[in-house]
């Protein structure tokens, strides 16, 4: 979440988005997943030294295709939008695309060879916690075995949440309501509903909406959303674990938000060409819908 006087900065997952508050109001900023390396170093750019680090600062002036030291795309948007830190993380599920960057959080934490720093809060389900503990035990274990050497890793404060929409939790001062959805018929994933003044639903990985979840976010149910951020994998056909454009548009018609932004698109989508199609659809259906993009900043009063 964007925050120029940092109060909160919650990343919903690698692929999609951050939101936040500043003295001028709230905004959502859409980010790509980026790479898993640490060159340039994130801390050198979001909290630059005087004089600045020469290697890392090159990434701000030399295009990545001509800069062998540029290996993290997400940094261009943190620096562009002046996001100084990550205060909390909210996970949707434990698939690779949502969790494999967790250790990279150390790149934007204060440097400590002994890991003696305040951890970053991370909110997740028990199922995700159990999976991560198996995949990344060193991120979860707090005590060293006798003779084990200290190694610098991301410091995370694991906070278990319940998967039901009537069990909200607060991350960095913002209340989140879990939205259970099917990500394939054998896997439950979470989206999230948040915002008090304006209602936003973020649903990144979904193939089907359970009726209770759809009711919570529908105009004809619990109330109209101001913004729906929704999964959309392919332009045609269907897929077993994600919505594709035909199903995405049908879901948006049923849910009827004031505005929708699509995420998770493959290279089949052309941003300019397909947004022209979506603009025509919007005018016909009365619901504004467009493709999101990396670096997109959406002011919204949360």
From TrEMBL:
The lineage of its organism: Eukaryota, Viridiplantae, Streptophyta, Embryophyta, Tracheophyta. Residues 79-264 form the Metallo-beta-lactamase domain. This is Metallo-beta-lactamase domain-containing protein. InterPro entries: Metallo-B-lactamas (IPR001279), RibonucZ/Hydroxyglut_hydro (IPR036866). Pfam families: Lactamase_B_2.
């Amino acid at each position: 979440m964007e925050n120029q006087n940092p109060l909160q900065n919650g990343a919903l997952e690698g692929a999609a988005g951050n939101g936040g508050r500043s003295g001028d109001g709230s905004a959502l900023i859409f980010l790509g997943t980026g790479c898993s390396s640490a060159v340039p170093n994130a801390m050198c750019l979001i909290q630059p030294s005087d004089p600045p680090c020469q290697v890392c600062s090159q990434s701000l002036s030399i295009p990545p295709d001509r800069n062998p030291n540029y290996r993290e795309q997400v940094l261009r948007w943190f620096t562009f939008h002046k996001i100084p830190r990550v205060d909390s993380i909210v996970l949707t599920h434990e698939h690779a695309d949502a969790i494999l960057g967790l250790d990279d959080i150390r790149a934007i934490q204060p440097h400590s060879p002994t890991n003696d720093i305040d951890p970053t809060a991370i909110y997740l389900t028990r199922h995700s916690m159990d999976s991560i503990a198996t995949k990344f035990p060193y991120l979860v274990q707090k005590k060293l075995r006798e003779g084990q050497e200290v190694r610098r890793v991301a410091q995370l404060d694991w906070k278990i949440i319940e998967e039901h929409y009537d069990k909200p939790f607060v991350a960095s001062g913002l209340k989140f309501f879990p939205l259970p959805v099917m990500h394939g018929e054998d896997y439950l994933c979470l989206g999230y509903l948040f915002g008090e003044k304006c209602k936003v639903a973020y649903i990144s990985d979904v193939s089907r909406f359970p009726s209770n979840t759809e009711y919570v976010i529908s105009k004809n149910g619990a109330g109209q959303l101001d913004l729906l951020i929704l999964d959309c994998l392919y332009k045609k056909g269907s897929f077993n674990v994600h919505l594709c454009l035909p199903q995405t548009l049908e879901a948006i018609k049923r849910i009827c938000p004031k505005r929708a932004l699509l995420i998770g698109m493959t290279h089949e989508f052309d941003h300019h060409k397909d947004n022209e199609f979506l603009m025509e659809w919007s005018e016909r259906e009365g619901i504004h819908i467009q493709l999101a993009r990396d670096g997109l900043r959406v002011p919204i009063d949360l």
